[in-house]
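Folding Task

Wanted — backbone structure
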Amino acid sequence: MRKEESERPLRVQRMATVRLPVRDVEENVRFLREALGLVEVRRRRSPKGTEAVILKPVEGETEIELVWDLEGPQEMEERQVVLTFFVEDLEAWKEKIQALGIQWTVEPVYEDDGGGWAILTMPAGYRVELRQRSGIYLA
């Protein structure tokens, strides 16, 4: 980290995603489209059997990710709610979090494309993901 960067307070850049578990995804997608005018960006399936629909406002960047379990209704647990924030320098965040004595839920993972991510858990049980964008990440 350069000297001038170390003098600046380390702050997140912006909120990227709010992840919400739902029992009926299509009902919630319809509500968000009709009531709020959100648009569907993409759908994806995880190897663990969950599926997600990502929506966002027409004139905004923060995404809402609705997730559900393909095996049946999932329990609504705090750990399934994830707030994702973009950060410029994940390594600097790693140093800051360690200096504060906070334990990582998932320590920083660096990707081949230059991006990376890590997860903290708030005292209330909600997860916070810090994501460093890669050169190819599309918001």
Q: What stands out?
A: The beta strands are 14-21, 39-45, 50-56, 63-69, 82-87, 106-110, 116-121, 127-132. The first strand starts at residue 14 and ends at 21.
